[in-house]
Amino acid sequence: MGLNPVLPAYTALILAGGQASRMGGVDKGLQTLHGEALTQHVLRSLAQQTRPPAGYLLSANRHLDHYARWGHPVLPDAEAGYPGPLAGIQAGLAACPHPWLLVVPCDAVQLPDDFAQRLLDAAHDRQASSAADPAHWHPTLLALHRNCAASLDAYLARGGRSIRGWLADLDHQPVHFDQPFANANTLADLARLAAP
Description:
The chain is an alpha/beta fold. It has helices at about 40-45, 65-70, 85-95, 115-125, 150-155, 165, 185-195, and strands at about 10-15, 30-35, 35, 55-60, 75, 100-105, 130, 135-145, 170-175.
C-alpha cells in the first residue's frame, strides 16, 4: 500500500499511566531495556516511522516530572484510581491538536516502520483502526479520529472500561501485520527482550 498523501498530520499518545499489575506494580514506562526507559524506545520507534508524528503526548500518573524530561506534554488521568487505558485515551483526545491520534502502549517497544502509515490509511474515512498480528488483536495499538472524543466520554460516563467494548460502537477497521508485536508486558517479557 502506498503513502496516502492527503492524510493530515497526527499526534502520538504513549500510554504509561497504568498500574502495571503484571509487572509487580512498578511504573512500566520507566523500566529500562538496554539502558533506556521503555517510553524512550517507543518515542524512537515512532520517530522512525515512514510517516512520523507531528507531536507527542505522554499519558502517565506517577513520576510526572520524570516523564516531562522528554519534552512532551504529560497527561494524568482526570479520574483517580487508575481507571484504565481509556482514561489515558480520553485525556489524549482532549489534548490532541491534530485530527488523528495514534495510540501506543509504553511496552510496544518495536513497531514496524509502516505501523503508523498503515493504521492511518485504514482509518481514513472511518473513526478508528487497530493492529492485529498472527496471534493477537492489540486494541491499544490504534488510530483514532478526534471526533471519537464524545463517544468515549459517553461510554466512560456509562461505566464502560473496555477498549474492545468501546471500539465495537465505532466504525473501526482491524489492520493485520505479518509479524507479532514485541512488547514488555511482564518482567519476564522484559528479560527476554534484553537477552542477547
